[in-house]
Amino acid sequence: xxxxxxxKYGADAVFSPxxxxxxxxxxxxxxxxxxxxxxxxKLTAYVEPRADSPVxxxxxxxxxxxxxxxxxxxxxxxxxxxxxxxxxTENCIAAGAEAVLLLGGAAGLQTDIPPDAAILPTGVIRDxxxxxxxxxxxxxxTPTASLVDGLDDALSDGGFDTFxxxxxxxxxxxxETVPEISAYGDDGVVTLDMESAAIWAVCQYRGxxxxxxxxxxxxLTPEEWQPELQQDQGVTEMFDPVVAGLENHLxxx
Length: 253
Hints:
This protein has helices at residues 17-22, 41-47, 82-94, 145-157, 178-186, 196-206, 235-251, and strands spanning 34-38, 55-58, 61-65, 70-74, 99-108, 118-127, 162-170, 191-193, 209-220, 225-226. It is an alpha/beta fold.
């Protein structure tokens, strides 16, 4: 059972993200109200030349402002998965972020989704550990519906076919088993990742908006893993529509 200590949810933490982000400086860093978390070097290589000088968040964690409204954090430079994603999300929120979005690759669990599609998860199977330290098991962890709608519109306007459905977040990369993949695929789950549940749970706990946009980083079926897909567009082409969707979302009253 996670968390092991059953009375955790009403308890205070020993220290807060605001304290950590504020260590060794006067005040907190200024970050844009929307933050995109990136997990692929190819996306970072696309964003960095177009961004302003990076802002130091905590230690080596940096944010690249791409507009007055949106910044980009290359999470992959410190790791991947639920724990590091939750910490980076907490740090960004402590510095002032009002919306945090994951833009990255995921394994597809449906064989009929085109490889160039943009996938917007609308729910999650919580199979990691972090989210349960924020949100109890009986409470659904979800993205912000209005943000998902706006991103869908922006990506569609940008020429992407969009698909929605649940994602499966797990931390056990080498224990994605045949019966699980078969059951979740049959149940219509669209993608598998290692971060969404944790990011959404942190955002839900802290009261900020959140969403995920996936490109297909291969297809996983009970018979095989197909890690390579022929794609003409992916996260780099999704970036500008995602920025537009975030800007429009924050501009709405």
